Amino acid sequence: MPASRNILVLYTGGTIGMQQSSEGLMPASGFAERLGAQQAQLPSLQLPDWQFRELLPPIDSANMNQRNWLAMAEAIRNGVEQDGCDGVLVLHGTDTLAYSAAALSFLLLGLEVPVVLTGSMLPAGVSGSDAWDNLFGAMQALSNGVETGVQLFFSGKLMPGVRASKLGTASLEAFGVLPRMRTGQHVPVPGSLDFRQTRRPVPLAVLPLYPGITAAQLNGVLESGVKGLVLECYGSGTGPSDDAQLLDALSKAHRRGVVLVAISQCPQGHVDFDIYAAGGKLAATGLISGGGMTREAALGKLFSLLGAGLPQSEVEHWFAVDLCSERAE
User: Fold this and answer.
1) Is residue 214 among the annotated active site residues?
2) Which CATH class is domain 191-319?
3) I need a labelling partner for 14 at 20 to 30 A (CA). Which of 31, 135, 289, 323 fits?
4) Rounded to whole angstroms, how far apart are CA atoms 4 and 25?
5) Residues contributing to the annotated binding site for substrate
6) Which residue of the set 94, 118, 238, 294 is catalytic?
7) Rounded to whole angstroms, how far apart are CA atoms 154 and 102?
8) Residue 181: pLDDT above 90?
């Protein structure tokens, strides 16, 4: 894990750089000057050299979407390939920080430099803020050496970007990695899926199963034009298997080419369709097991695969194997 000496700091907005307005806290530009001024006050810090890029306009991460992910990936590629950066720090709002970390994990497969995302629960400059600790902590981690791939740094912890989740809002220690069983064969990343591959936005949906869900409600999602669905099942991958209309809705969507993937809605869950008959009936509709993948990882991986223009069968193949430790330790 070589040390990063010249990093790209990519600012997207978020709480870390927000400033007070008449309407409340709002994303603000000009964060490079604030970062430089704060670093000048801490001369003992051993930090890598950095160059600053800003995605405009800076956004509240609650407004994050696929096009923002693609813009981040492009800016990171340019920073590495054109500007010679050997590490990347992405400053991001916390609401969708884990989603972006997961998406970038798949969009940047094969990139030979480390990418670290961080943010803060309180804006920089506010009393008790975690902003500078998180930002400079992430920069120091890059300076010390971080393995290639995407990581999330928060509250002193470096976490795999493809397995981290936001777990709370009442504490500065808002992110963590829950223990989820991981199974899956790790395979080399094919050229058709590496960071050079062009992606495009693709309509996706996430839907939890719940007592009383109907086929009509499920069809409302499946017939809305989505190309992929992350279905959050009960426990180890079960659902209302006695509802023939609901199962038929899934089967028809799969035959139309919609990619259907299943994850557990339990925080420490793992999908194994072979345990219960109810799970087997769901699997028979065309659902692909996400194993112990988080919602963020499943959505990010599905976007990366479908966004690359792969057909349904190839998406299902690559979703079922491990590409960057999303399915295996």
Assistant:
1) no
2) alpha beta
3) 323
4) 33
5) 61, 94-95
6) 94
7) 15
8) no
